[in-house]
Amino acid sequence: MTSGKTSNRRTFAIISHPDAGKTTLTEKLLLQGGAIHLAGEVKARGQARRARSDWMKIEQQRGISVTSSVMTFEREGITFNLLDTPGHEDFSEDTYRTLTAVDSAIMVIDAAKGIEPQTRKLFEVCRLRSVPIITFVNKVDREGRDTFELLDEVADMLALDVSPQGWPIGMGGQFEGVLDFATNSVARPEGPSKEFLGKRDKDPVLPERFAEEVELAKVGYPEFDLEAYRHGDLTPVFFGSALKNFGVTELIEAIANIAPPPRPQPAGDEQISPDRDEVTGFIFKVQANMDPNHRDRIAFMRQVSGTFKRGMKLTPSGLGKPIAIHSPILFFAQDRELADTAQAGDIIGIPNHGTLRVGDTLSENNTVRFTGLPNFAPEILRRVVLKDPTKTKQLRKALDDLSEEGVIQVFYPEIGGQWIVGVVGQLQLEVLISRLSAEYKVEAVLEMAPFATARWVKGPTEALNQFESFNRANLAKDRDGDLVFMAKSPWDVGYQEEKNPDLAFSATKER
C-alpha cells in the first residue's frame, strides 16, 4: 500500500533504439506537462533542433542523447519524474543504472522497423527488475509495417501479452488518424503539416477495411489487465506520432492512470517500502560540469522512502558520516516549493565535490544498503596518452570525475605509468576525448592497450598473494583500490579461473 503523498508520483523512463523518436516524444510530454513552453522542432536547424534534455556539447554535435537527464513536471495533481536515457548501445551502462531508479518505462518503437536490437536489450533490463512497460508505436503517419505484424513481433520477441489501446487508420500517404478505443474517437490530421491540432471525430464511421481490422484487434488480443501490466507480463500498446502530436495525450494519461506509484526497492534480503518514515535513497548517477563555469558535480538520488526536507542530514554509505543537503535540486520543477521537500519516487540532485558516488545509499540512520547497481566489465580498453605531459594532475582528476559518473572506468596498472580506461562501447571513447578537452582543457589521445577485457578478483588472502606474485604485469587497481585482472583475451580469463579455483573472477562489481 502506498501513502497518499507518494501515490501521486510517477517515476518513469523512456527506452528505445536510436532514431525511434524518443527525444521528440520526451519533448512533447514535457510540453504537455507545461515543463517547457516551446518544443524544439526536430526539423528546425541549429540550437532549436536539440531537445532540452540534450545539453552536452557532443550531444548537440551528434544529435544523440549520451547522458541520462531528469525532468520533473506536474499535470492534474500528478508529479511526473521523467528520466531520459541514452538510446545508443554504447551507453547501456548508464541506461541500466537509470532503469534501477524508475517504477515504469515507455518503450518507443518505430512503426517501420519494429523491435530493434537496442530496444530488446533495454527491455531485458526492465524484465530483470519487473519494470512494467507501456509500448508506444511511433511514426504511424509515415509508411510502416502492418499493424498486426508489429504487435505479433512485440508479443513473440519479448514474450509479452500485448493489448492495443487504439489503432492507426492507415499509414503514410493513407494516414487518416488514430482511433482511441477508450473514447471511440479518431484524432484527425489537420492543416498542411497534417498535425493533430485537437480535432477528434466521436463514433466515426470507419472505412470497411479498418472497421474489420479494429474488430479483429479487439477480439484477437487480450483486454488490458492492470495486474498483468504491473507484474511486467502485459504491455498496453498506443499508436501515434510524437512529431505530429498524435497519441501523446493518451500516453501521458496512461502513465497517470495505470503506471505504478513508487515501488519498494531491494536492500539485500529486505524490501524498503516507500511508506517507511526514514528518508532513504540511492545514487544512480553522478554528472560533473552541468555548469562548466562552476565545475559543479551533481549526484542524482532516487528517493525510496520518507519525506525529505531541505537542509536535512543524510549519511552516505561510502562516507559513513552525515552530510547536510542545503541546496537540493529538482529538475525542471516550476514550483520552487517542490525543491524544499521531496517524497518517495522523486529524483533529487545533490551538488557535491566528489563525496557522493554511484551506488551510494543515503539514509538518516545509516542502517540500509540498497543493492543492484553494478559496474560492468569493460569490453574496450585503451591507454590514455597526454599531449602535454605537465597536465598529469589534471588528467587524473578528470579520469576520476568521469569514472565516478560511469562514463568510463579507469584502471591504474601495478607496473608501468600509463593509465588505462575501459568502456562498454566505442562512442564512450569519443565522449571521453571530447569532454577532457571541453571541460578539463586536457588534450589526450588513446592508444591500443594490450588487454581485451578486465575482471575483478576476490578470494582468500593467501590465494590472492600467490596470484599477484605470478601475474603482476597483468594487474591493476580500479579507482576504489580493488584488484583487477587485465586479460589479453577471454581465453586468458578461463585459463586463470581454472588455475586459481579459490579466486572469483567477476565481470560485474556491485557497489
Automatic annotation (TrEMBL):
GO biological process terms, alphabetically, are: regulation of translational termination
Coiled-coil region(s) at which residues? Answer: none
Checking PROSITE patterns in the record gives: G_TR_1, G_TR_2
- Report the residue ranges that make up the Tr-type G domain in this protein: 7-263
| Swiss-Prot/TrEMBL keywords | Cytoplasm, GTP-binding, Nucleotide-binding, Protein biosynthesis
Keyword Signal among UniProt keywords: no
SUPFAM superfamilies for this protein: EF-G C-terminal domain-like (SSF54980), P-loop containing nucleoside triphosphate hydrolases (SSF52540), Translation proteins (SSF50447)
Give the primary localization class: cytoplasm
Q: One GO molecular-function annotation for this sequence?
A: translation release factor activity, codon nonspecific
A single GO cellular-component term from the record reads:
cytosol
Q: Which domain of life is it from?
A: Bacteria
Q: Could you tell me which InterPro entries the record lists for this protein?
A: EF-G-like_DII (IPR053905), EFG_III/V (IPR035647), G_TR_CS (IPR031157), P-loop_NTPase (IPR027417), PrfC (IPR004548), RF3_C (IPR032090), RF3_dom_3_sf (IPR038467), RF3_GTP-bd (IPR041732)
Residues annotated as binding GTP: 16-23, 84-88, 138-141
Query: What family name appears in the similarity comment?
Result: Belongs to the TRAFAC class translation factor GTPase superfamily. Classic translation factor GTPase family. PrfC subfamily.
Q: What does this protein do?
A: Increases the formation of ribosomal termination complexes and stimulates activities of RF-1 and RF-2. It binds guanine nucleotides and has strong preference for UGA stop codons. It may interact directly with the ribosome. The stimulation of RF-1 and RF-2 is significantly reduced by GTP and GDP, but not by GMP.
**Would you tell me the protein name for this molecule?**
Peptide chain release factor 3
Source species: Allopontixanthobacter confluentis
